[in-house]
Specification:
It is a single chain. The chain has 226 residues and is an alpha/beta fold. The protein has one domain (28-53, 72-219): Rossmann fold. It has 7 helices and 10 strands. The strands form 2 sheets. Strands 6-7-8-3-9-10 form a 6-stranded mixed β-sheet, with helices on both faces. Strands 2-1-4-5 form a 4-stranded antiparallel β-sheet, with helices on one face. The longest helix has 16 residues, at 170-185. The mean pLDDT is 94.
Amino acid sequence: MIEFHSVSKIYGEDYYALNNVSLNIGEKEFVSVVGRSGAGKSTLIKLLLKEEAPTKGRVLFKGVDVVKLKGNSIMRYRRRIGAIFQDFRLLPSKNVYENIAFAMEAGGRTKEEIRSDVPQVIEIVGLKGKEENFPHELSGGEKQRVAVARALVQRPEVILADEPTGNLDPIHTWEIVKLLLKINEFGTAIVLATHDKDIVNFLKRRVVTLEDGKVMRDEKVGTYKI
C-alpha cells in the first residue's frame, strides 16, 4: 500500500533527515517506526501527508506517486489518510462534535454524512456524553481521543500517528494504544512513530528502526533496541 523507493530528504546542503530509505507497508498492517529524536520519524510522516516532498526517490500510495498529486487530487488523497499528532491540534473554539464534523466538512462530506458518522465515531472512541465539551474542558487523553475520532471519521485506509502519547500520562497512554489496536482490527493500517519502549515491546508487531535517517532494522515482530 505504502512504498518508499530510495527516498532521501535533505535540508540545507548536507543534513539528511532521511537517507536512501526503502520501505513497504501493507494494507491492515500495524507498524511502529522507532528511533531517537531526529532519527527521521516525523519526516517520514510528513512525506506521507504530502506536507514535504522528497529530495530524492519516490513515495507511492497504492501505486500513485504522492509527489505528483495536485489540486483536488491532494484533498482526495488526504481523505484516505488519517493523522494524529502529539499536540492534538484541536480547534479551541469548537466543541468535540464540531471538531470532528469540521474534518468532514473540509473533506467535502455532506451534512447528512456528518450527522450519521460523527455520533458513530464518538461512540467508538469512548466520548459519548462529551459532544458539547470544548478542548479546555477535556483531559489530555480525551483530547487525543477527539483527534483519533477526527482521523477515523474519514474512514481512512491508514492512520499515521506521530508520537500520539508523548503528552499523556501512563493511564491515558495505554488507552490510546488500545484504541489504535481496536482501529487496526477494523482493517485500518496504523503507522505509529514513537520512542516509547514500553509501547513497542507491548505491541509485538512489526518494528522499523531509524537511525540518522537510515533504516537500520525492519523486524516482522520486533522490540525496541535503541
